[in-house]
Design brief:
The chain has 476 residues and is α+β, with helices and mostly antiparallel strands. The protein has a domain of 231 residues. The chain is built from 15 helices and 22 strands. The strands form 6 sheets. It has a 5-stranded mixed sheet. It has a 4-stranded antiparallel sheet with strand order 5-4-19-20. Strand 6, helix 10 and strand 7 form a beta-alpha-beta unit. Helix 4 packs across helix 13. It is globular, with a radius of gyration of 23 Å. This is Circularly permuted type 2 ATP-grasp protein. It comes from Alteraurantiacibacter lauratis. It holds the Pfam family CP_ATPgrasp_2. InterPro entries: ATP-dep_Glu-Cys_Ligase-2, CP_ATPgrasp_2, UCP005522.
Length: 476
């Protein structure tokens, strides 16, 4: 057993085997349940997800078949006190991110101060010169944010990653809760859990609050999807339906009379707010990739004229960069004047010679990630890699050190999953979802818990075999 595995924090059970306070009511309920009935419920949940179409596609797979994300019926439970502290830290970080992105496209004070190297902009393809000097309607860049958190101890939550571009997974958060309430309605009368069902209404209200001037009291909102073959298409359709918004593709839109308008049975109708799930590169073929058929020719001109809101704003991906992440403690302090409530994971920037030497000397013990990578791809988990894999990655590091950061192999906390042999601990992370508008910051209580379904695995990404579970914040 590795040191990280031996020292992991079990969120349900204390070292002496007693049940922690957050799980006591749930454990008392669980003790009264028939395991055979629970197994049947698990099968019913899988059938429900398949019938509903809650699937995803893994790009690059030879068969490219749609898959279910495994759902585990044991909730991940957080006390109200823990959540209040997390919420303060999340709000602080999201406000700093928005101020940081605004600064990067205006005076770049953080670079002038010497706290952030200018090379991080020059080397970052997500930084868009087309956004320089432009402020989105309402001054909001990051309308929807996902902050990935990991836990290593009783009061030790760390930020693993910031998702300021197009964070996904909120539909699974909502469907997981609906499924749990459908399977175990009596459980929710015994354990007081804060609801998450209001997210779609909050999302619609938050987006409407960011509409450009002149949009009127009821702005028209649409969700832009790349189409049915996108891995997150279910979520795009789900959110549009839940918000009462239109689901559109690029071919449904065009610029008419200086406005982005969508095709309807009665002709074209203007859109005020576009919640886009299309990457910057494909958003406007006249501005970015000329071969794109997913976006809308001319939309950036309309946007810069202040006649449509795009959420999230183009260029927000600059804050998703893992090299930028390593500077987040300085960024939070610079824009808020406060120390970060939620710390980063210790990070070595391989672009720095001393850090690179340390990483190369300790590859077998570290996790190394591409600065622009996502989804668990392009990374090395030293303790679970072979010598051959480590040496192959070493060559990549030496060739392009600026393309990587490294972090320690954390002793991630575990939550139990339901297996044929009973409860078994598995590593988890948490992605709370945050809405930002001129009216404030709204954080849904809980978020999406992703779980490594394989024993000992630290990789929770769905594309790498991870599953999900309902996240409960106790209403205490």
């Amino acid at each position: 057993m590795s040191t990280a595995e031996a020292s992991r924090y079990d969120e349900m059970l204390a070292p002496d085997g007693s049940v922690r306070a957050a799980y006591r009511d749930y454990e008392q309920w669980l003790e009264r349940q028939d395991p055979a009935v629970l197994r049947r419920k698990g099968s019913e949940a899988e059938s429900f997800f398949r019938r509903t179409g809650i699937t995803f596609n893994v790009y690059g797979e030879a068969d490219a078949e749609e898959r279910l994300i495994p759902f585990d019926m044991v909730p991940r439970i957080i006390t109200g006190q823990e959540w209040r502290r997390l919420s303060r830290g999340i709000e602080q970080r999201v406000r700093a991110l928005n101020a940081f992105i605004h600064d990067l496209y205006h005076r770049q004070e953080i670079i002038r101060s010497g706290r952030l190297p200018v090379r991080l902009l020059r080397e970052n393809s997500a930084w868009l010169p087309q956004m320089v000097g432009f402020t989105p309607p309402g001054g909001v860049y990051t309308h929807i944010v996902g902050i990935d958190l990991v836990r290593t101890g009783p009061d030790q939550f760390l930020v693993l990653e910031d998702n300021a571009r197009t964070p996904s997974g909120v539909s699974y958060m909502l469907e997981n809760r609906e499924t749990m309430m459908s399977m175990f309605p009596e459980l929710f009368t015994q354990v007081k859990v804060r609801p998450v069902s209001g997210y779609p209404r909050s999302l619609a209200a938050s987006l409407a609050a960011c509409a450009p001037d002149g949009a009127g009291p009821k702005p028209t909102i649409a969700v832009l999807t790349p189409g049915i073959f996108n891995s997150a298409y279910f979520e795009h359709a789900f959110l549009a339906d839940q918000m009462g918004a239109e689901l559109v593709e690029g071919s449904d839109l065009r610029v008419v009379d200086g406005r982005v308008q969508m095709r309807t049975t009665d002709g074209f109708r203007p859109i005020d707010v576009l919640y886009r799930r299309v990457d910057d590169e494909y958003l406007d073929p006249l501005t970015f990739n000329p071969h794109s058929v997913l976006g809308v020719p001319g939309i950036m001109d309309v946007y810069r004229a202040g006649r449509i809101t795009i959420a999230n704003a183009p260029g927000t991906g600059v804050a998703d960069d893992k090299a930028i992440y390593s500077f987040m403690p300085e960024i939070v302090k610079f824009y808020t004047g406060e120390n970060p409530i939620l710390p980063n994971v210790q990070t070595w920037r391989c672009a720095d010679a001393d850090s690179l030497k340390y990483v190369l000397d300790n590859l077998a013990d570290l996790v190394v990630k591409e600065v622009h990578g996502s989804g668990g791809y392009g990374m090395l988990i030293g303790p679970t890699s072979s010598k051959k894999e480590i040496e192959a990655f070493r060559a990549k590091l030496v060739a392009r050190p600026e393309n990587y950061i490294a972090q320690p192999t954390l002793a991630l906390s575990t939550c139990p999953i339901f297996t044929a042999k009973g409860l078994a601990p598995r590593h988890v992370d948490l992605r709370p979802f945050v809405l930002v508008s001129p009216e404030g910051v709204d954080i849904t209580p809980g978020g999406l818990t992703r779980v490594a379904m394989k024993k000992g695995s630290l990789v929770v990404n769905s594309s790498q075999g991870g599953g999900t579970k309902d996240s409960w914040v106790l209403d205490d």
